[in-house]
UniProtKB/TrEMBL annotation:
Keyword Signal: yes
Domain named SGNH hydrolase-type esterase: residues: 62-210
Domain of life of the source: Bacteria
Source organism (scientific name): Flagellimonas spongiicola
Keyword Heme: no
Protein name according to UniProt: GDSL-type esterase/lipase family protein
Keywords assigned by UniProt, alphabetized: Signal
Length: 223
C-alpha cells in the first residue's frame, strides 16, 4: 500500500507540475471556479484563520455556512456537478490558495451517479490527499460521507460501499477524518424524505440542520 501511495503521489505531483503548460481555461468548470475565486477575493480576510468547505452542489447550496459556524472564517468553494476528478484539477484554486487550517470535502455523490466505481473514486481521493498533505502538511482534512437522497436512493448500495471505503481511507491516513452524514439522514433504514427540496436531491434547511449537527464536533476541533 505504501509503495502504491508513493507512486500515486509522484504521478499526482508530476501532473500538477506540468499542468500549467496546458492552462486551465479549457477544463470543465473553469468558468465556475474563476467566479468562485473572484467572489472570495471580495470578502476573504487572509489575515484570519480560514476553514474551506468544498465539493459538489450540496456544499455550494449551503448558503448559511458562515452563520452556522461563526467562530471562524468560512469559505464555500463548492460548485454544482463537481466530481472528485474535477476537484483534483483545481486544488490550488479551491483549497490551497487560502491556506486553510481545515478543509471539509464532499465528493463522491456525483461520481457514483456517473457510474464510477467506489474503488476508482477512492483512488482519486487518495491522489487528492497526497497533494494536499504534501503542499500543506498541517491542514486538518475532513472527508464528508456521501449523503442519501430520494432521487438517487436506487444507488444506495454503491453509496454505502463508497462510504465504507472512504471511512477506511480516513482511518489509515494521518491528519484525515471521516464525518458521517448518511446515518443521520435515515430513520433506521428508511430515508427521511422531508429533508429535500422538490428535485429530491438537494437539501432544505432541515437537511442542513442535520449536517450542522453531524459536523459541529469537527469544526475548529483539529487532530
Amino acid at each position: 500500500m505504501k509503495y502504491k501511495m508513493k507512486i500515486r503521489s509522484l504521478l499526482a505531483l508530476t501532473f500538477f507540475a506540468i499542468f500549467p503548460l496546458f492552462g486551465q481555461t479549457d477544463l470543465p468548470f473553469a468558468g465556475e471556479v474563476k467566479e468562485i475565486q473572484e467572489n472570495i477575493q471580495k470578502t476573504w480576510d487572509n489575515s484570519k484563520e480560514t476553514i474551506v468547505f468544498t465539493g459538489s452542489s450540496s456544499i455550494r447550496m449551503w448558503n448559511d455556512l458562515q452563520e452556522r459556524f461563526p467562530e471562524t472564517q468560512i469559505l464555500n468553494t463548492g460548485f454544482g456537478g463537481s466530481q472528485s476528478s474535477d476537484l483534483e484539477h483545481f486544488l490550488d484554486e479551491l483549497i490551497l490558495d487560502y491556506n486553510p487550517s481545515q478543509v471539509f470535502i464532499y465528493e463522491g455523490d456525483n461520481d457514483i451517479n456517473s457510474k464510477k466505481s467506489p474503488r476508482a473514486i477512492i483512488g482519486t481521493m487518495e491522489d487528492i490527499l497526497e497533494v494536499l498533505q504534501t503542499k500543506n502538511p498541517n491542514m486538518d482534512i475532513v472527508l464528508i460521507s456521501a449523503k442519501p437522497s430520494i432521487s438517487r436512493w436506487h444507488l444506495k448500495r454503491k453509496y454505502k460501499r463508497f462510504n465504507k471505503r472512504l471511512s477506511k481511507l480516513a482511518s489509515r491516513t494521518t491528519g484525515v477524518r471521516y464525518a458521517d452524514v448518511w446515518t443521520t439522514m435515515l430513520n433506521k433504514r428508511k430515508l427521511k424524505r422531508d429533508l429535500f427540496i422538490e428535485d429530491g436531491l438537494h437539501m432544505n434547511s432541515k437537511g442542513y440542520d442535520l449536517w450542522q449537527e453531524a459536523l459541529k464536533e469537527y469544526v475548529n476541533n483539529t487532530l
